[in-house]
Specification:
Layout (H helix, E strand, L loop, with lengths): L1 E2 L11 H14 L9 H21 L6 E4 L2 H12 L5 E4 L5 H13 L3 E4 L10 H9 L5 E5 L11 H10 L3 E5 L15 E5 L11 E5 L37 H17 L1 H19 L5 E4 L9 E6 L4 H10 L2 E2 L1 E3 L4 H7 L6 E5 L6 H12 L2
Parallel strand pairs: 1-11, 3-4, 3-5, 5-6, 6-7
Antiparallel strand pairs: 2-8, 7-8, 9-10, 10-13, 12-13
Helix pairs in contact: 1-7, 2-7, 3-4, 5-6, 8-11
Amino acid sequence: MIYLDHAATSYPKPAAVVAAMARWFDEIGVSGERGEGPRTREARAVVQRTRAAIAELVGVPTARVAFVSGATEGLNLALRALCRPGARVLTTPFEHSSVVRPLRALADERHIELEVVGARTDGTPDADPIVAALRAGAADLLVFTHGSNVTGAVLDAALLCEEARRHGVTTLLDASQTAGLLPLDVGADVLVASGHKALHGPPGIGFVAAREGIEMLPQKHGGTGSATALDRHPTDWPQAFEAGTPNTPAIFGLDAALTWLRDEQPSLLLQRSLAAVDRLRDGLRLVSGTRTLGDQTGPRTPVLSFVHERYDPLEMSALLAAAGVHARAGFHCAPWIHDVLGTASAGTLRVSTGPATSDADIDAFLALLADL
């Protein structure tokens, strides 16, 4: 199989990740905050080590990192914690449904005001209208993705977070597409990411990291393994956002993935992945009827979307799948950007590469496209 869907889930996972999870099942089997004993202490040590590693990446205290089931849960919890009734929320057309749908729900439930800006007509990011809205006092919260999962474009998070802080606006950054590829210490008040993409961890784990001083009360209530005699959920972090039995085997896997990433160096992994995307884009210029979308000259992640004048994206995906290529067709859970790109009728075919993507993979993919 030629795997070209790393923007959804990286594959294959490092062997160390699989081994760490198997070790939890074979040798540990308990949660770090439930009970005592050597197994519990070891589980607790791994959880804390993983929490500390993420805190270092984001630039927050260790206690301000909460584990969640993934970016979807983390963004839902964070948005509900940050959006008071009537809040003015500024966001961009690049957002994933994990931001779009909670915001639409909050607009109905809490009557928040939404303003969506930040993309040029060619689908490239434009910070100017976002900065103008911040300076005009038009927002209480700025929520935005660090990188588009449709075009690969990277937004200038450091600039936007600095400008927002200057004008008293809280920032919530969705780093699901950039965690493991780009630096995350960009000044966001709250940062959310999943573990199963470029962090190379397993599915079912993500995190919410919040700067000290940002008030975020619990949005779920239940067991935490601490303060168990109380009938109210703790408001202290990280327990405030960690109701329920944690996915400890996934945390073990994420711990191993973070160690693997440090050894492999994210900048080198990104360089390899971008080289594969560049080879793909250059090859597409020779494939009759294809058109790539978005600017590929600015900061970017290894993601490329394109359309074909003779084939619907889903038709292309089906034909490629029959030939052993796993790519992604459709809207990629990012509904707003397709109105900007002019692809709202059928979406795009998206190819996203990873460190293991070879020149042979790209050449075989291009040859299949040329034969359609």
